[in-house]
């Protein structure tokens, strides 16, 4: 378990919403002390949590979260639940302003009710084809700014630094949660890929298992280490740096590259130059550079095509209890944009068989990103 | 390797297109003999094939097929390349009419050039992070009808029976191809999921490897058989039949059900009631029932919502050389439609981490499909 530390520079203030969900303000350094206002809404109490079902053919848990069908879907701008509250409208955030705010998702894919039992998932009964479990864990929403009309790429490096403090705090806190095995921090951006709220925000999933893609990477890394004693992620980064042709940006502490076997038309991986398990393990110098290089990577991606870029950005962090020496923190940003106005869709080969076809040459994408004209953060 | 058999009842006629690609007509029983016309177009010769790149972190091949960027994208209706040719317009199909026709994809994800070497993929060099291989194999297009304006669900059972003959023939033929390890037959339907041609058609991928999802299922089935001596797919079907609440339709030879751990808002699996490896292993009686039950399943899916249903339908067939006793032929139909006008998208959890959240209760979906009013095929 990683050491618990206080957030680095941002000011943290914890409160609760009307239905008991936790809400946490992270204010930029120098902000005046916050006295959080009460949530004045009447909200139904939370009494159901999603169910996990074991897919015996795939060997994976699937979350069945039927109550999410009712979640807020492209609300009118005056009713954005991620704006700060006003005298006329009570949003999810009771205060009249905020810098970064994190709260428990009202429509979660995983949730632990205060009264419910906690602890690891039950073992799979192999002869039983219908294994179920409570979908415990935690889903949080992270608002990057109270400004409804900007995007992550429009934040200041100082605000990204506050956001990094929030992500570190949440990783540390959720890593101590008895139901949670992995903390996944991500942003879905763009209506074209199904984002139902346009306010700049991301999410955090505290999974009660190690998710399939991370598990597959750790399996590969374990076999690789057994065969040659080296770390697979570190050797991947070293091979990309040595080849050079797919490197997008390389700094003192971070390297961004289009991976050799990219699956998506636009795909960038961002690695720290030394192996660390998760965001809380980063040094101040690494965090400071990250707050600028993260913005630069997004701005490069957005500069390539002449329309709004839909993307998914997700942090691969080590599991909270296992394989922490095998994992290697990195960010993966992918976009389905393959040309102006054209998206790549997952069709039969990718969706049904898991076999990816990429229509873009990774080396050409890397060149486009390197040459992109951006405002340096 | 399965025994080679002639197609069952349809009449097969083989010809070639101007660039050397194979084209095969499958005509309904009783059609007059076909004397295939020559392709009168001038087409550039085929000289490049896609590249496979090994994703060392996932342990999977990715196909990089940059030449596919130029493929035909939502052409005007008069220029549909899947219509029969007319005196004014030369399509991909030279004859003025057809029942079912199969031809090599002009923009393939896998291809074997006549002059190229053949055989299994090279072994992965474990210390090398940049393993590449030629993307050999075969991609075929299957037109279900010359009628541009219908859909699979609008075909007659007799035409579906001709299509089954075509699928059986292609499975048998591609199973003898030295580059191919798996024959995947599928249909992508609906502009909303990226289909670039609206003419009713499907595809066949002859993969030079066993695709990740089939490989994962076979790994699970192998472990299950080792633990209890039974077949995992057969026990899955038996458990669904015993539970009953997710069964959509059960006949003498076939059973359709919504799987217990469905990943998609709409998902139906269709299993033969006895274990067979692939389509060529089916009996006449099984094929006859399949031609009606396949139509009924699609019509039920399309009847639930009041708008056009996008879907992916794919056949899980046994690998052509390995694990044929472990596999169990079945069809998987999935749709991203979660409500009228609303799609489910793969966002951060599914796309980046492989962890699926389903917003629909499988038992409720099964009830909707059972109760759907359809025209019986």
The helix/strand class of chain A is alpha+beta
Helix percentage range of chain A: 10-25%
Shape of chain A: globular
Spatial strand order of the main sheet of chain A: 1-2-5-7-9-8-13-14-12-11-10
- Mean pLDDT of chain A, nearest integer? 92
Radius of gyration of chain A, in Å, reads 21 Å
What does this structure look like?
The structure is a homodimer of 377-residue chains. Chain A is of the alpha+beta class. Helix content of chain A is 23%, strand content 23%. An 11-stranded antiparallel β-sheet of chain A has the order 1-2-5-7-9-8-13-14-12-11-10, sandwiched between helices. The first copy, chain A, has a 3-stranded antiparallel β-sheet with strand order 4-3-6, with no helix packed on it. Chain A has a two-stranded antiparallel ribbon with strand order 15-16. The longest helix of chain A is centred in the C-terminal third of the chain and has 21 residues, at 284-304. Chain A is globular, with a radius of gyration of 21 Å. Mean pLDDT of chain A is 92; it is low at 1-7. Chains A and B meet through strand 3, strand 4, strand 8, strand 9 and helix 2 of A and strand 3, strand 4, strand 8, strand 9 and helix 2 of B. Strand 17 of chain A pairs parallel with strand 4 of chain B, so a sheet runs across the interface.
């Amino acid at each position: 378990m990683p050491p618990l530390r206080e957030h680095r520079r941002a000011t943290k203030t914890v409160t609760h919403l009307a239905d008991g969900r936790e809400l946490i303000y992270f204010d930029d350094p120098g902000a005046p002390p916050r006295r959080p206002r009460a949530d004045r809404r009447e909200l139904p109490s939370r009494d159901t949590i999603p169910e996990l079902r074991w897919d015996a053919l795939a060997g994976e848990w699937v979350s069945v979260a039927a109550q999410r069908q009712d979640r807020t879907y492209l609300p009118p701008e005056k009713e954005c639940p991620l704006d700060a509250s006003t005298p006329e409208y009570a949003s999810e955030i009771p205060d009249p302003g905020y810098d970064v705010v994190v709260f428990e998702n009202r429509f979660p894919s995983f949730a632990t009710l205060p009264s419910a039992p906690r602890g690891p998932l039950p073992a799979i009964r192999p002869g039983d084809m219908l294994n179920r479990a409570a979908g415990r864990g935690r889903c949080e929403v992270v608002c990057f700014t109270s400004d409804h009309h900007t995007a992550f790429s429009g934040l200041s490096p100082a605000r990204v630094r506050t956001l990094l403090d929030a992500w570190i705090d949440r990783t540390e806190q959720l890593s101590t949660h008895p139901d949670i095995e992995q903390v996944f921090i991500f942003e879905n951006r763009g209506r074209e890929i199904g984002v139902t709220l346009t306010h700049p925000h991301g999410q955090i999933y505290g999974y009660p298992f190690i998710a399939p893609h991370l598990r597959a990477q750790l399996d590969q890394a374990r076999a690789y280490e057994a065969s040659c004693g080296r770390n697979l992620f570190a050797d991947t980064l070293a091979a990309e740096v040595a080849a050079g042709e797919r490197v997008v940006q390389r700094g003192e502490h971070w390297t961004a590259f289009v991976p050799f076997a990219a699956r998506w038309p636009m795909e960038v991986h961002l690695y720290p130059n030394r192996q660390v398990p998760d965001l809380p393990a980063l040094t101040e110098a690494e965090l400071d550079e990250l707050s600028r290089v993260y913005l630069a990577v997004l701005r490069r991606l957005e500069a390539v095509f002449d329309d709004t870029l839909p993307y998914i950005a997700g942090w691969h962090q080590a599991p909270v209890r296992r394989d922490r020496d095998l994992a290697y923190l990195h960010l993966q940003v992918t976009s389905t944009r393959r040309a102006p106005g054209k998206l790549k869709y997952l069709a039969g080969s990718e969706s049904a068989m898991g076999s990816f076809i990429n229509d873009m040459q990774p080396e050409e994408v890397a060149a486009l990103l390197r040459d992109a004209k951006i405002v340096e953060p």
